[in-house]
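Support request from a user on the community tier.

User writes: "When I paste my structure tokens into the form, the page sometimes reloads and wipes my input. The last time it worked, I copied everything first. Here is what I submitted, just in case something in the input itself triggers the reload:"
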């Protein structure tokens, strides 16, 4: 299951997931984030159509954050969320069901502990899922989340976009002790870049390569001479866990309304066992055995996966 807000890097995540033999994408759910939720649904449907996968259902979820509506943000992903590239219209209208119910149904149908959820947009749908269907937590094998920033943010100096867009949802999800979480944060994903030479390789390898390359070329996020495909690293790490190094961590999210709203506060090891001589309740790492956070990546291995598997996703 992929919960997303396409989004340029979300688009490459879908392609990589569909082209990965280890993964079976049963449904795509969308949430307001990079674009309004209806645009996200349209983009997801058109991307699945481009990959020849009209069989994969798309369901729209939350149109806004749990508690507060996020302020407007720069159109980093282009005016339509896909770098301004207009993809062919999809033939399927998409599921009329709410994303949370589609996620819940997939968990009911999957054998216990066998469904991985990739959450690569704001966590509103996931927070609603855990709150409305707590009995289904045992059917979640792992929740792999792109989000959070240790150090500088990308939407504010201290906050990463997915968490900033709905900090209350992020706090609800990231502090749930009953779900196995792999958090892939910004200071790792911003290094998961592709450059023009990689786009030219993609153009040579698949008939839709130029469309996909132009989606990236319309993407305003840049790092170290390339375009960071944050979400695609999270999806790739599901197919190939050796792609990232992880450590146990505890996370708290600033859900205030000040300048640090959406900041993720991370502790790897408590300074003194059980000590928390400050005013917010940082839980002891022993409780946080369920949360692993990515601390490093193999970027060349990531690029190879991307350039091999996205062409493989395009059938016919
Ligand atoms: O901060 C990166 C995240 O925000 C990615 O999910 C990207 O798609 C944007 O939504
Ligand atoms: Ca995203």
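"...and here is what came back when it finally went through:"
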């Amino acid at each position: 299951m992929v919960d997303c807000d396409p989004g340029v890097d979300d688009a490459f995540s879908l392609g990589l997931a569909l082209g990965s033999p280890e993964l079976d994408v049963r449904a795509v759910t969308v949430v307001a984030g990079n674009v309004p939720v209806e645009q996200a649904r349209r983009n997801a449907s058109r991307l699945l159509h481009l990959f020849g996968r009209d069989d994969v259902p798309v369901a729209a979820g939350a149109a806004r954050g749990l508690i507060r509506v996020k302020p407007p943000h720069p159109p980093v992903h282009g005016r339509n969320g896909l770098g301004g590239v207009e993809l062919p219209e999809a033939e399927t209208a998409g599921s009329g069901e709410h994303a949370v119910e589609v996620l819940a149904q997939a968990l009911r149908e999957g054998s216990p502990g066998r469904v991985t959820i990739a959450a690569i947009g704001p966590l509103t749908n996931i927070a609603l899922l855990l709150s409305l269907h707590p009995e289904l937590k045992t059917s979640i094998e792992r929740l792999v989340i792109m989000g959070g920033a240790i150090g500088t943010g990308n939407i504010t100096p201290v906050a990463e976009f997915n968490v900033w867009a709905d900090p209350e949802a992020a706090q609800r999800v990231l502090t749930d002790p009953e779900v196995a979480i792999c958090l892939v944060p910004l200071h790792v994903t911003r290094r998961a870049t592709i450059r023009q030479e990689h786009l030219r390789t993609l153009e040579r390898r698949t008939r839709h390569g130029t469309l996909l390359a132009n989606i990236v070329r319309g993407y305003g996020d840049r790092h170290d001479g390339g375009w960071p495909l944050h979400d695609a690293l999270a999806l790739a790490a599901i197919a190939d866990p050796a792609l990232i190094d992880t450590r146990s961590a505890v996370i708290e999210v600033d859900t205030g309304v000040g300048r640090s709203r959406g900041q993720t506060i991370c502790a790897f090891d408590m300074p003194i066992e059980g000590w928390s001589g400050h005013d917010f309740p940082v839980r002891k790492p022993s409780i946080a055995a369920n949360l692993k956070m990515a601390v490093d990546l193999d970027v060349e291995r990531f690029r190879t996966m991307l350039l091999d598997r996205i062409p493989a996703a395009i059938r016919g």
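Agent notes: The reload is a front-end session timeout and is unrelated to the input. The domain at 2-313 is CATH 3.90.245.10 (Inosine-uridine Nucleoside N-ribohydrolase; Chain A). The longest strand covers residues 140-146. Escalated to web team.
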